[in-house]
Amino acid sequence: MKTMKQLCLIAFGFVLIGAPAFAEEAAEIVVPYLHIKTALANDSIDGVTDAARSIAAEAAKMTYHWPGNVAVDATQAIATAAQTLVRATDIKTARAAFGPLSDALIQYADEVGLGQLKVAYCPMVQKSWVQEDGAIRNPFYGSAMLSCGTFTR
């Protein structure tokens, strides 16, 4: 019979083996997400539909089959939110749909991490988003309040 210490070491080994897959799969979601964030911050919806469609497809393919794993719930929420964003036909609707997508991505990041990306928060809309370090680029207000917000983590 295996001791608890041996079982913990075996489980830790599986987590380490799976870690690169997390990072690779996360990149397949993060790259198009950042495109959407940038487009909205620039008061545009150019490429948003295609990026959201890509996110939805990648999130649906993610393979976290551990019962009770938060990442499973988060990837399902990412896929659902991205599908809503696919249907957005104007910037106001796209920005409204971007909020739930950001929430789901942040939940996912809390579980598996997203490297050097930061979480920013806009007190005016009371919503968060993920972006690269550097100047705040608010996707919810774009040029009207581009620098509104602060990094929360």
Largest sheet: 3 strands, antiparallel
Helix content range = 55-70%
Subunit organisation of the chains: single chain
Form type: globular
The CATH architecture of the domain at 19-115 can be named as Up-down Bundle
| Average residue pLDDT | 82
Radius of gyration: 17 Å
Structural class call reads mainly alpha
CATH topology of the domain at 19-115: Four Helix Bundle (Hemerythrin (Met), subunit A)
Instruction: Kindly report the spatial arrangement of strands forming the biggest sheet.
Output: 2-1-3
Strand content: 5-15%
**SS summary, helix count:** 4
Task: Write down how many β-strands occur, each being a DSSP E stretch of 2 or more residues.
Answer: 3
State the low-pLDDT regions, or none: 1-22
Q: Give the ordered list of helices and strands.
A: HHHHEEE
The CATH class designation of the domain at 19-115 is Mainly Alpha
Ends: how far apart? 43 Å
